[in-house]
Design goal:
This protein has 215 residues and is α+β, with helices and mostly antiparallel strands. It has helices spanning 19-24, 60-73, 85-100, 148-162, 177-185, and strands spanning 27-28, 31-32, 38-43, 49-53, 104-111, 114-123, 132-139, 167-170, 189-200, 203-213. It has an 8-stranded mixed sheet with strand order 3-4-5-6-7-8-10-9, with helices on both faces. The longest helix is centred in the middle third of the chain and has 16 residues, at 85-100. The protein is globular and about 40 Å long.
Length: 215
């Protein structure tokens, strides 16, 4: 399950070392952010212990390795160029702002004290009532087909319901059969297909819009 839908917007970084660490520990807007909160423990199919938790600043380097490994792999994600540590830090700063506004939720999968998967849902653009969320998920090579992605999805759906969302969507590429199979397994259905939405490695690829109602 290696599709990645979330908008990662990178610009000229204005990251100040240490500033984000302070923000994560602060009470911002009256909401205490809980970094590294463990939501679930389980064993993968190969017996390895997996922790599902909220993100924390210390994940920065693992996140950087994760996304850059997928770029090297030429995985079915929208990102095709590697990022610097400064750019990743800038992304985390933007994430913090969305978390503060309750527009986004992040879930990290940790194995052997390393973040090996990152997933999220965020309020769909234009949804003024904030009832529909869009899910993104990436899993590092070597940790797929072990039940980790399925457990992540189930947990995301539980949290989405807690947030009050009524539906969530996914947008995998039509060629990502592995991801589509898992999405269907947890109850997503195909809503529509957008022809030739993406251009990758010299060809156009359809996008599959999948939806699951909550509650």
């Amino acid at each position: 399950m290696i599709w990645y839908s979330r908008n990662r917007v990178y610009g000229q970084s204005n990251y100040i070392p240490g500033a984000f660490d302070i923000l994560l520990e602060s009470n911002i807007g009256g909401v205490q952010l809980e970094k590294g909160k463990i939501l679930k423990n389980f064993n993968a199919k190969d017996g390895r212990s997996v922790i599902l938790r909220t993100l924390r600043w210390e994940d920065l380097d693992d996140f950087l390795k994760l996304i850059n490994s997928l770029v090297e792999e030429k995985a079915q994600i929208l990102i095709t160029q590697k990022f610097t540590r400064e750019a990743e830090a800038e992304w985390l700063r933007k994430v913090l702002a969305r978390l503060e506004r309750d527009e986004q939720f992040f879930l990290v999968a940790e194995v052997d004290k390393k973040a090996i998967a990152l997933s999220d849902f965020q309020i769909k653009d234009g949804d003024k009532e904030q009832l529909v969320g869009e899910i993104g998920i990436i899993v590092r090579n070597g940790y797929r087909d072990l039940g980790i992605g399925t457990e992540i999805l189930k947990t995301l759906l539980e949290e989405a319901a807690f947030f009050g969302l009524k539906a969530v969507t996914l947008r995998p590429s039509a060629t990502n059969e592995r991801a589509i199979h898992i999405y269907k397994k947890v109850g997503f259905v195909v809503s529509c297909i957008i022809p030739q939405k993406h251009f990758r490695e010299g060809r156009f690829i359809d996008e599959v819009v999948m939806t699951k109602l909550i509650g």
